[in-house]
Write a structure and sequence with these properties.
Strand content: under 5%
Radius of gyration: 27 Å
Helix content: over 70%
Structural class: mainly alpha
Number of strands: 0
């Protein structure tokens, strides 16, 4: 039965992807200021008369009354330029035709080329991916490595001074935005005012090629310290409280009281009975946290620390209406998220074989 459940989940992925892409395509069609308008505006504002210099000659220039264009062919050239840009960007076709062509290409993982960069969307994603993976993976690992033991200790010592002080510290850290913490860390530790312990920009030093392999690894990790800390602090607070509450809930159940009455040690109860049940809810948050660290939470951090990753790529693509990049990254992000959710359910069944999902799809 578990095989049939996961098969159904996998078969739902294409339908879900189609729905996500369709909805966003409709929203984009309704949004004002597309790539053609953006490019027209840039050309018109370049030098004050960029369009009037396209294809014109000195004989076309004649004095005009105030408020009129000084170039007789400006309007005609503007319309010709618009049609040329629409053809270049593929907007000379009806919306439905463009949508069907995009879906056909996406089935073959052909996302086209960026409107503003002479690169394919795939090459841009591959180029930026290592930066985002570095931030996402290391931030998520740091969050789980700190939060799980800290949450367990807070649950065991509930009501103690340690629990109270750590709760206040975690609440304050959770309330501080990641970008504000990043600026604070730069001021204090990256040569802003006090200490110059960590590098300010990028993931590698200028002399990277001259370093040995151990030095390269050290240099790479050293550049990650401040960005990863900025991303992880908020996640540490939320996951710690989640872990604490999960363990407290299990500690109050009848099987724990029965185990204590039989003389089972507290350590065996905690790690032999409670741990597996309490960790289910913690494991459930792993895919969403990883996706958040990879694709959404790191946008401002990438900007502040000059890290050229996927978050910055997607943000700039939306600003510039670079639709191939917008839809290409959206498609891949959604696909990865859906696959991770299926993987999350699979991990559930490994942790606790008693779990059955079949009724969820009925």
């Amino acid at each position: 039965m578990k095989k049939s459940y996961f098969l159904k989940r996998l078969l739902l992925i294409p339908l879900t992807l189609f729905g996500i892409i369709s909805l966003n395509f409709i929203i984009v069609q309704l949004a004002p200021g597309g790539p053609v308008e953006q490019m027209m505006s840039k050309l018109e504002n370049t030098g004050g008369s960029a369009i009037s210099r396209i294809g014109g000659s000195a004989s076309d220039m004649t004095p005009q009354p105030s408020g009129e264009s000084s170039y007789r062919g400006t309007q005609g050239l503007r319309e010709e330029l618009r049609k040329e840009l629409e053809k270049q960007f593929g907007f000379d076709k009806p919306a439905l035709e463009r949508f069907l062509l995009m879906i056909n290409n996406y089935l073959r993982f052909d996302f086209g080329k960026s409107f503003y960069q002479d690169k394919t969307v795939i090459s841009l994603i591959v180029e930026k991916l290592p930066v985002s993976i570095s931030l996402g993976v290391f931030s998520t690992l740091l969050i789980y490595l700190i939060s799980i033991p800290l949450g367990i200790r807070k649950a065991v010592q509930k009501g103690s001074r340690f629990d109270t002080v750590s709760s206040w510290a975690l609440t304050i850290s959770y309330a501080v935005p990641a970008f504000l913490l990043a600026i604070f860390l730069i001021i204090v530790f990256a040569g802003g005012r006090y200490f110059n312990l960590f590098p300010l920009r990028g993931l590698i030093s200028d002399n990277w090629d001259m370093l040995s392999w151990p030095q390269k690894i050290t240099d790479y990790l050293w550049h990650l310290v401040l960005p990863v800390l900025s991303l992880a602090v908020g996640g540490i607070a939320s996951l710690t409280f989640l872990t604490q509450n999960a363990f407290l809930d299990e500690l109050g159940k009848a099987y724990c009281r029965t185990a204590k009455a039989k003389g089972v040690s507290a350590k065996n109860i905690l790690y032999g009975h409670i741990f597996r049940n309490a960790m289910l809810i913690v494991i459930a948050g792993f895919p969403s946290m990883l996706i958040s660290m990879l694709f959404t939470g790191s946008v401002l951090i990438e900007v502040i620390f000059s890290l050229d990753g996927l978050g910055l790529l997607g943000f700039e693509a939306v600003q510039n209406r670079d639709y191939p990049v917008v839809f290409g990254t959206l498609y891949l992000f959604a696909l990865i998220g859906l696959i991770l959710n299926v993987l999350n359910d699979f991990v559930y069944t490994l942790v606790d074989p008693r779990i059955h999902f079949e009724k969820r799809l009925q």
